[in-house]
Amino acid sequence: MTVVLDSRKDFTLENLRRVSVTGESVLISPGAKKAIKRSRQSFMAYLDSDRTQFIYGTTSEAGQGASKRISPEQQRQLARSRSRVRPGGGFGLEYVPERVVRMIIFARLANYIEGNAKARPIEAQRIASMLDRPLPKLPLSGQVGAGEILPLAHVMNFLPEGETEEGEWMARINGSPVSSALLCDVALTARGHLSLATQIFALSVDAYAAPLTPYSASLVRYARNPHEKRALRNLRWWFKTSSHHGRIAHQAPVSWRILPAVLGAVEEAVAIAEETASISLSSVTDNPVYILPTQSEPLGRAISTGGYHNAQAAPAIDDINARFADLCTLADRHTMKLHSADHLPANLADPKGDGWGTGLLSFLQVGYGEEARHAARRSFLPPSEGGGIAGQNDVASPSMFAYQKHTRARFCLEASLALLASSASQAFWVTNRKPSARLVPILECVRDYVPPLTSTVGRDMGNELHALQQYFQALSLSN
Amino acid sequence: MPVSLNEPDDLTLINLERVAVKGEKIRFGETAIRTISASNKAFLEYVSARPNEFIYGTTSDYGPNAKNRINDKERQRLKKIGVPFLGLSFGDENLPESAVRSMVFAILGLFLRGGSAVSPKTARALAKRLDGPMPKIPAGGLTSPGEILPLFYLLRAFPELVDEPLCASSGNTAFCSVGLAGIDAITTQRRLTLAQKVFALSFEAIQAPLEHIDPALKPLWNDPYEAVAIDNLSHCLKGPLINRRPFQAPVSYRILPRILGQALRASERLYRCSEESLQSMVSNPMFFTTGIGSKVETISTGGYHNARIPQALDGVSMSWVDLAELARRHIIKLHKGPVSKLPDRLVRLGDHYRAGRTTSYLEFVPADFVDQMRRLSEPTLLLAAEAGASEQDDINANGYIACRNQRQVAYLFDRIMAVLGGVASHALDIQDRRAPLELANFVAEIRKYFPPVTKKRIIGNSAARLAHRMSDAIDNGNSVMTETIADRV
């Protein structure tokens, strides 16, 4: 299957998923090609009408040289000399997932599809064709600078060979498609992580034999916020056929009762990530951007903007990171309480076993929680001006930095949930109970990776838990 | 005229401000009293019919002793003993009167919908308390599971809350964070209005090309908040603006509408979150009569823990830091002649910076504030430490921490706005340029406190006066500093 792009309306999260996760190709529609061509012609007419006017990177030099105008011949020469994007300079130990590189390429096309990139159709086709070729590797580190030239250099260096004309080379590496892609990836995967977390916490509710009243339908009706309602509904779904019997007769600790509130905040963070991802994906962020001709401006115009700085991505990703850290904290507390509750065997030790129990799981939670909280630190605008002290590029975009922390935050959440799920599984085992019917399949999956512990002999808990974390990762990404 | 409360929709932030900040009184209307009365009656019947059901604090003891059941007689005995804690918190100053009033307003919001099942007498009595002074509550050491630490002070000052013979809850709700965040939501809007004016002034001072805020960008960027930022900046700068820079301004100017757009998004989110929270206060326990819930029930909840408010406040704090970072760049660039194309160091023609008739060196000052802001704006996560010596109370509610930090960050931000406002105004003055028409009154107000530097003086004092004036205008409204910019906002 191929995703056909006709206008900016086609830059949806669903189409992004098809291209990035399913691996589909992209086709620029004939209508879009015509629009791009028309736009290119009018841009050239606009440029030729006055080659002394300021058009960043076309009639002027780029970056710190923006104030320097160049002659028409130099303009053509500059365009020809930049037909190959130079390789990126960032390096490091880890790389952006391949699906995100596909997202960047897809998002890059939003500038082109209606002609705002002022480029010829062949440029859009070259970019689209990158999705059918071996993909570049994009290091996670070393990508925080003004605009997104640093990461785009890595990606666009892989563009198929071809000459460039005036106005085209800058369109390749300006704008903010990287932020869009990173935010989209977080938006698409965070929903899966939230679903997984809800399920594992539901398992923990049953494992502790906590009362179900904090998740009452009355609260759904009473709440005014849609995210809180949704969190409650999602949590309640797992208890659809559950009985109120066999649960402790008094209220469970705070960490169980505040689950709807905390999950509601995660719901909100995910919803904002989804909303801002959709906005970012279909936005035109080029600098300079070409404003299409109108009746009053028949040649259109090219203007300098700050479009290359996506201000929504880092805060939205940061919020997800913070909420993942909160979920790790709750998982830690649940794990601890499962191992120390009065109504459960101490340390969740099997009375018929060697007496060790699974207290180790509670120890392990500490480290993952600390890591998650560290990854939740804010991605403010960097104080360093980088190359900007000379005046132009004085503020860097922190999106990649936020995403880099996100990769850690989601690993920690998966790990923390693996520990909680294993603890819950053990609690059912040592008390000979079963969870609510809808939770039985996930319990069985957990036990496939981490069987209940009767004896520590022959067990490698680290490997088992790692395998469960990886299963959770796959589950979240495919959700 | 007192604010009348009848329906949940009356629990608006506008009414909150009238009561908490402007000191207006509050009265329950007939509809509200009917709801409260019906809920109280239904709760008494409910408890009477189910003496063995677990109802936290009614048929059970509190906190660590929640698992201990009590009967009617024991309940009466414990009630006579009263609240064991008269006040445990300390440190810092006391909370402002407006903050405590906002907390009472939030508790009345809980009462209004009947979830606490207090009697009309108690509800009216608490509302009447707003006619007089509020108790002093220390601003430090208030974080606990739920918001019981500030509640102890209210229970001590307002014994009618404790004397209620039988109710589900007399305030075990997120009243503190919801009340404070409500005020913060209003001041955030004003602070952002002021910030947009200051940034517009800076934009004008450096004569940035207007194409950076061209309305044609709105459909391209596709973001409603960035569109508002573009409109606001354009409105502030409308008029015959000439002699713009012939090439693009530094990034810190070009990305202004995008950073301001994100701040507007954060502000809107805080406003919506605070108002929704106010209109759906949940306590522990919570009583639902038919018509509110699916059935009559009393349930133990975590309603005292509002997790969305810290998130919303944190978003606002982050925006203050990012805007402060931009402001710092602007202040430096305005003083840097080769970049600004203005007189280097903003020195008057023929003058020398050593004469002290310039704002030069003031650009060093914000670094201190921004650094502090960054530290205070780290996210307010759930505290990882076990909260206390109780299996029950194991997670702290972190709303108050987020409120306190946001306020500190916001006041630091005002100082940076004062520096940028003063510097931009000075930059216009040394070139004999006038402020754009829409900013004329704003600039006149700035100059009352921070006049352009024409002779050597202690400029820090001017900046401090202006910062104080800005904070005051934000806290109280009714100033040219915080007047709404355009109709759309």
Describe the model:
The complex is a heterodimer of chains A (479) and B (489). Chain A has helices at 13-20, 30-49, 72-81, 98-108, 121-129, 149-156, 168-173, 177-208, 217-222, 226-237, 254-257, 259-281, 313-340, 359-375, 399-431, 440-449, 461-478, and strands spanning 2-5, 25-28, 289-291, 301-303. Chain A is mainly α. Chain A has two domains: 2-176 and 288-303, Fumarase/aspartase (N-terminal domain) (Fumarase C, Chain B, domain 1); 185-274 and 312-478, Fumarase C, Chain A, domain 2. In chain A, the strands form two sheets. Chain A has a two-stranded parallel ribbon. Chain A has a two-stranded antiparallel ribbon with strand order 3-4. In chain A, helix 1 (13-20) links the parallel strand 1 (2-5) and strand 2. The mean pLDDT of chain A is 95. Chain B is mostly helical and 489 residues long. Chain B has two domains: 3-176 and 280-299, Fumarase/aspartase (N-terminal domain) (Fumarase C, Chain B, domain 1, Orthogonal Bundle), CATH 1.10.275; 182-273 and 307-476, Fumarase/aspartase (Central domain) (Fumarase C, Chain A, domain 2, Up-down Bundle). Helices cover 53% and strands 2% of the residues of chain B. Chain B contains 18 helices and four strands. Chain B has a two-stranded parallel sheet with strand order 1-2. Chain B has a two-stranded antiparallel sheet with strand order 3-4. At the A-B interface, helix 9, helix 11, helix 12, helix 13 and helix 14 of A face helix 9, helix 11, helix 12 and helix 13 of B.
